[in-house]
Amino acid sequence: MSRRPKSQTRLHSAPPPFAETLLDSLVGTGNIDKAAIFNAEGTSVWASSAGFTVAPAEIKEVIESYADKSDVKKVQSQGFHIAGEKYVALKADDKSLYGKKGKEGVVIVKTLQAILVSHYPETVQPGSATNTVEQLGDYLISVGY
């Protein structure tokens, strides 16, 4: 019996069977009020909260922000859109994109094979929302997603 080294990650082409459960868990924390999970290319929605629609052009902005290696990324100077709303970028790196609009915001985290797009309402502290999404992202990375 051969074992695959831990450094080799098996890529999954289909949504994980637990995508809806992950989404429910994310929203169930109370730190996130709506969310969507996409594949890493942004071409397929694995799960989404009812009424939370991220348009193809919007997820394309997110994908482009991850590919942008400039000192000041385009999203940092121009902002970005999620579910029809414009957000000011607070953080934009290879893994995370945080945006704020008034007292509400979005936390977007890229894993090996997924992009978690989440929204928190003005009643939630940004730090609580970011910790929730970042922890789920780290878990997904640890299990190969």
Distance between the termini: 24 Å
Number of DSSP strand runs:
7
Shape summary: globular
- The pLDDT mean sits at 89
**Helix-strand topology string:** HEEHHEEEEEH
DSSP helix fraction: 25-40%
Uncertain runs with pLDDT below 50, 5 residues or more?
Answer: 1-12
- Helices, by number, come to 4
Rg, Å, rounded? 15 Å
In percent, how much strand structure appears in the residues?
25-35%
User: Given the helix and strand composition, which structural class is it?
Assistant: alpha+beta
Structure description:
Helix content is 30%, strand content 28%. By secondary structure, it is α+β, with helices and mostly antiparallel strands. It has a 7-stranded antiparallel beta sheet with strand order 2-1-7-6-5-4-3, with helices on both faces. A hairpin with a 2-residue loop joins strand 3 and strand 4. The two termini are 24 Å apart. The model is unreliable at 1-12 (pLDDT under 50).
Which SSEs are present, and which pair or pack?
Blueprint: H1 19-28, E1 34-39, E2 45-48, H2 56-67, H3 74-78, E3 80-82, E4 85-92, E5 96-101, E6 104-110, E7 114-120, H4 126-142
Antiparallel strand pairs: 1-2, 1-7, 3-4, 4-5, 5-6, 6-7
What labels describe this entry?
alpha+beta, 28% strand
Brief overview:
Helix content is 30%, strand content 28%. With 145 residues, it is an alpha+beta fold. The radius of gyration is 15 Å and the shape is globular.
